[in-house]
UniProtKB/TrEMBL annotation:
Origin species: Blastopirellula marina DSM 3645
TM regions (residue ranges): 38-61, 99-130, 196-215, 244-264, 276-303
Gene Ontology cellular-component terms listed: endomembrane system
SMART domains, A to Z: HTTM
UniProt keyword list: Membrane, Transmembrane, Transmembrane helix
Membrane topology label: Multi-pass membrane protein
Name assigned to this protein: HTTM-like domain-containing protein
Compartments (UniProt record): Endomembrane system
Amino acid sequence: MIVAIQEYFADLSRCVTESWTQFWFRAAEAKTLSMLRIGIACIALLYVLGYTTDLTFWFAADGVLPVSRVYEISGINDPESGASYWSLLYYFQDPTDLWILHAVTILTLLAFAGGLFSRFTAVASFILVLSYAQRSPIVLTGLIEPILCPLMLYLCLGPCGAHYSIDSVWRKRLGKPTIGKTYAANIAIRLMQVHLSMFFVMMALSKLGASYIWWNGAAMWNVLARPDSPLIDFKFLRSSPLVVYAWTHAIVLFELAYPVAIWVRPLRPLMIAVSIPIWILYALASGNWLLALLMLVMNLAFFTPLAVRPPGDATTGDENAASSSKKIPAHA
């Protein structure tokens, strides 16, 4: 009996160790990461462009939120609060300087989306977008900053310009070898997958714990009834409360199911397909279309492109990845 128990825990330990190693520490293609670079960079560009019309209104020295006011509101000067918000925009308060930095940010994000000097523009884009998010903790656009900024950080960790980029075109013209499978690409993608899953868990639990209206189904009506938020007027649903209740519960069930079902390969296409109408309707109802677009783009984190094979070779990218991973030793 004791021997059987020892063998069980030995097998369990070996299985967990091998699974953990296979999950994090195996080489992977950077095609998925490159596609995510394009999508996330475009969304970051839209996020920054949203400040264009009110840039000096908010951030100039004589604007609504000068640096001194931000320090006062956020408690940065208070040693007891322990608040700390770093931003490049703290050092650009003159309107001319602000517009120059804004132009540099836009050009950097365009270069990053196109894959020009990807290693450099990835880091620069992360710092610049983080500076906008941190410039004032009270000027935020909802839930997009807590997920956009970490995703841009993860792009800095892997070769996100290996494919679908100007860098890759130059590399081919110079006769340099194509970047193959790397451990950095796998780690960056895994971090995005885990972060996205935890974000869904956070959204679901916050809804269930914050207010009873998510339990009784009335929460979506509160969103639809806001006069300045919806992109489409859904007030006609006041005569169909059951539709509103079903909509509310569908969102909660989706957010609870996604972080679990997305890891089950047969269920993954279903969850991605369901997420499309869920987020489109959410964008139309709430007006927070940028978050909805980001969440739809992040489905790519669970997508593995098929490799281009010669005619007659039916081997898929997933099968090749599986076969190559078997050749990697457990300690790799």
